[in-house]
Amino acid sequence: MKVGILTSGGDCPGLNSVIRAIGKHLINNSPETEIYGITDGYAGLIDGEFRRMSAEDFSGILNVGGTILGTSRRPFKQMTLPENGTTRLEKMVENYKKFGFDCIFTLGGAGTHKTAALLFAEGCRIIGLPKTIDNDIFGTDTTFGFHSALDIATECIDRIHTTAASHGRTMFVEIMGNKVGWLTLYAGIAGGADIILIPEIPFNLEKVAEALKRRIEGGKPFNIVAVAEGAVLDSEVNFKKKERAFARRTLNEATVTNHLAQWVSDNVGVETRVVVPGHIQRGGNPSAYDRLLSTRLGSFAAQLCLDGKFGVTAAIVNGQITYNALTEVAGKTKFVPADSQVIRAARDIGISFGD
Ligand code: F6P
Known about the structure:
- The protein has twelve helices and eleven strands.
- Helix 5 (146-167) packs across helix 6 (182-190).
- The longest helix has 22 residues, at 146-167.
- It is α/β, with parallel strands linked by helices.
- The model has no long low-confidence stretch (mean pLDDT 96).
- The chain starts with a strand and ends in a 7-residue tail after the last helix.
- The protein folds into two domains: 2-145 and 286-329, Rossmann fold (3-Layer(aba) Sandwich); 148-282, Rossmann fold, CATH 3.40.50.460.
- The chain has helices at 15-29, 42-47, 88-99, 110-121, 146-167, 182-190, 205-217, 241-250, 257-268, 288-306, 326-329, 341-348; strands at 2-7, 34-38, 50-53, 103-108, 126-130, 170-175, 195-197, 223-228, 272-275, 312-317, 320-325.
- The radius of gyration is 22 Å and the shape is elongated.
- The chain binds 6-O-phosphono-beta-D-fructofuranose (F6P).
- 6-O-phosphono-beta-D-fructofuranose (F6P) binds at residues 10, 73, 109, 132-134, 176-178, 229, 282.
């Protein structure tokens, strides 16, 4: 049997731990299986760039961040667009067949899963694995990479706390997540933020000002505001994605955070600063939680392959590793439910969501 492994989309801690678990599981349980690493995600499948992997490749990478296979973003929408008489999808299917793959493991996020579903529909045997620091993949409680990023984002907020307190400033920490607010919500709570702004709960500038003033009047001269990259003003809610992007570009900003900080400085009269940890949240070693989750998911996915179960993606639900059909989850987003227990607990301890 010939299997391929690819890592696609934004990297995150835990990719190598999954690669290792798939490799070791197959070597231990099906030694005759040939394993190939596909370079740079779907780009490698499009261009036919594969390399044979052996036991040594799977050693010493459990705790190493990033991906030893390389990754790239290949937008889903471009997969089916004709280019010089063929599409990227057709090239991938052709390479899959020509090389004689029996299965490809696709480690990736929402976009990766959509392309994986397309490949499966075209007759390629695919098994997905849920990667992303955004935690937005439908049908799994957690994605690998999320907890590592959460630890990093929380540490960032902790560090901002001490400097904010020393200077009596209002600090805005922009956390990754352009569609969903899981990382901002969890890191905001874990880091003791006073206000948390996430895409799922559009915020109102006056409400943010009220929350800040309440705290200041209560004797706290500093504030921490955790802002998701994708946080939206209530006045922007009815904007289409493109209109919002245009409005932001006009202000020369990709996110709302700088605008918000300036507004607060002008209207609340406090000194503000913006901190953007950015890709630091995706870098470095996986946490212990992610090493364990990645190992469980990778080993499970390898067994799915040996059992001949394809067109699925591994998941964790209520602590149990399981799988979902790609057709059931691809193209769906797992948003933070506005009435979730976590949000209720945050509100009950006085955290404002700016609404
Ligand atoms: O999907 C993961 C993510 O880190 C998002 O949170 C963020 O908006 C995006 O990727 C950044 O992408 P890039 O690495 O391409 O700048």
